[in-house]
């Protein structure tokens, strides 16, 4: 079959590949009691490390393309109630875990975790890190929207103990960002990279191809600029158009999505540019420098993927997740929390599991 025919055949929306079975196949019959038993059992199962995921759902402005579990920024008191509930949820789970196990990963995702006052994240890091030991070089990672972060904010993230920042660039082309209702980076990326590198922070950058306003030429320019910046990891997500989940995406449909052939060329040009600048592909959409732990793991048969993304067999753990929509990934079962912020806060405040 010709490449164009293959693309036409498989160019269909499918569930995201982050888990098997995917989250839309999870069912409601898994009770609170089942969850507690599964957590207790996870203490005896491998992988032996602890991996914590904290979901911060709020965003100052919603990007029209967004396929994440994001909600408009709430008033100060709601953010505070939400974060108190997250801390309370963590407090109910920590006593169930084997204190001899070590933290391999702490990951804050969203939404936009960098949009809330940083002391909340600092407090959670302290709660976790004062309860358990860590493996050598644990990953303490956060997804960052650069549109709102000053140099002071970036330095505060370093001081809060983060050692990996995932920067959501999406595109350098300001017209593309404008159509998508997204703020460009407040600081030049060069300045952010310099600041993070000086402080020994690993840098990921996220891009999306397939957005309105992008052309094969314009996206090539974006990727050429990205590789010049030399982040440790580059991720180029294929835009997932799922307007039945996020109605805002209909605005982008109206603005005009690139043709399938063009989207496919954006990807193949990306692969070429990455390769010619020394980046190695990991899976469908990640590119890393050759000395990156993911590439070393790929070569040694130790590459892995959990709900926090690609990782190595050494850094993966049982994933205990907190906050709305967060998915715990234990060896014996997956369990997802409720999507509703008020329901989540109410359940945790009543001492119930928010799943
Ligand atoms: C939770 S966001 C990152 C943190 C922060 N909210 C930001 O936007 O910078 C995770 C990443 O998912 C990607 N993403 C969001 N919606 C997407 C979609 N519909 N299709 C493909 N990738 C998407 C973006 O690249 C984004 O950086
Ligand atoms: S891409 Fe990031 S900032 Fe934009 S709406 Fe989604 S989670 Fe929020």
UniProtKB/TrEMBL annotation:
**Which SMART domains does the record associate with it?**
Elp3 (SM00729)
* PROSITE patterns assigned to the protein according to its UniProt record, in alphabetical order: RADICAL_SAM
The cellular location(s) given in this protein's UniProt record come to:
Cytoplasm
Q: Which Gene3D superfamilies match?
A: tm_1862 like domain
Question: What are the protein's UniProt keywords?
Answer: 4Fe-4S, Cytoplasm, Iron, Iron-sulfur, Metal-binding, Oxidoreductase, Porphyrin biosynthesis, S-adenosyl-L-methionine
Q: Which domain of life is it from?
A: Bacteria
Question: Where does it mainly reside?
Answer: cytoplasm
Domain Radical SAM core: where? 44-270
What are the record's GO terms for cellular component?
cytoplasm
Q: Which Pfam families match?
A: Radical_SAM (PF04055)
Q: What is its EC number?
A: 1.3.98.3
Q: What is one Gene Ontology biological process annotated in the Swiss-Prot or TrEMBL record?
A: protoporphyrinogen IX biosynthetic process
Q: Which reaction does it catalyse?
A: coproporphyrinogen III + 2 S-adenosyl-L-methionine = protoporphyrinogen IX + 2 5'-deoxyadenosine + 2 L-methionine + 2 CO2
Task: Give the pathway annotation.
Answer: Porphyrin-containing compound metabolism; protoporphyrin-IX biosynthesis; protoporphyrinogen-IX from coproporphyrinogen-III (AdoMet route): step 1/1
User: What cofactor is this protein dependent on?
Assistant: [4Fe-4S] cluster
Name the Gene Ontology molecular function terms of this record: 4 iron, 4 sulfur cluster binding; coproporphyrinogen dehydrogenase activity; coproporphyrinogen oxidase activity; metal ion binding
CDD domains assigned: Radical_SAM
Listed transmembrane segments: none
Query: What's the top EC group for this one?
Result: oxidoreductase
Q: Which family is it part of? A: Belongs to the anaerobic coproporphyrinogen-III oxidase family.
What role does it play? Involved in the heme biosynthesis. Catalyzes the anaerobic oxidative decarboxylation of propionate groups of rings A and B of coproporphyrinogen III to yield the vinyl groups in protoporphyrinogen IX.
Assembly, in brief, is: Monomer.
What PANTHER family does UniProt report for this protein, alphabetically? COPROPORPHYRINIGEN III OXIDASE, OXYGEN-INDEPENDENT COPROPORPHYRINOGEN III OXIDASE
Q: What is this protein called?
A: coproporphyrinogen dehydrogenase
- Tell me the organism: Bacteroides reticulotermitis JCM 10512
């Amino acid at each position: 079959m010709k490449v164009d025919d293959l693309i036409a055949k498989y160019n269909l929306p499918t569930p995201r590949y982050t888990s098997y079975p995917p989250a839309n196949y999870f069912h409601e019959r898994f009770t609170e009691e089942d969850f507690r038993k599964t957590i207790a059992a996870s203490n005896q199962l491998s992988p032996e490390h602890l991996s914590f995921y904290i979901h911060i759902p709020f965003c100052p402005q919603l990007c029209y393309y967004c396929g994440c579990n994001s909600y408009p920024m709430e008033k100060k008191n709601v953010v505070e109630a939400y974060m108190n509930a997250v801390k309370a949820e963590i407090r109910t789970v920590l006593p169930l875990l084997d204190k001899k196990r070590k933290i391999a990963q702490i990951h804050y995702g969203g939404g936009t975790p960098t949009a809330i006052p940083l002391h909340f994240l600092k407090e959670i890091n302290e709660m976790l890190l004062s309860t358990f030991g860590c493996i050598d070089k644990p990953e303490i990672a956060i997804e960052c929207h650069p549109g709102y972060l000053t140099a002071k904010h970036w330095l505060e993230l370093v001081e809060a103990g983060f050692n990996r920042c995932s920067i959501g660039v999406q595109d350098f082309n300001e017209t593309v960002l404008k159509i998508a209702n997204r703020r460009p980076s407040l600081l030049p990326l060069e300045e952010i990279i310099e600041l993070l590198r000086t402080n020994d922070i690993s840098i990921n950058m996220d891009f999306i191809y397939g957005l309105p306003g992008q052309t094969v030429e314009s996206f090539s320019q974006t990727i050429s600029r990205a590789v010049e910046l030399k982040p440790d990891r580059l991720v180029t997500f294929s835009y997932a158009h799922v307007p039945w989940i996020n109605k805002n995406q209909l605005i982008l449909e109206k603005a005009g999505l690139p043709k399938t052939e063009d989207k496919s060329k954006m990807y193949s040009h990306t692969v070429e540019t990455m390769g010619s600048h020394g980046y190695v592909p990991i899976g469908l959409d990640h590119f890393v420098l050759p000395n990156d732990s993911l590439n070393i793991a790929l070569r040694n048969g130790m590459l892995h993927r959990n709900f926090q993304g690609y990782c190595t067999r050494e850094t993966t753990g049982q994933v205990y997740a907190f906050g709305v929509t967060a998915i715990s990934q234990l060896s014996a079962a997956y369990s997802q929390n409720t999507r509703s912020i008020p329901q989540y806060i109410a359940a945790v405040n009543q001492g119930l599991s928010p799943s």
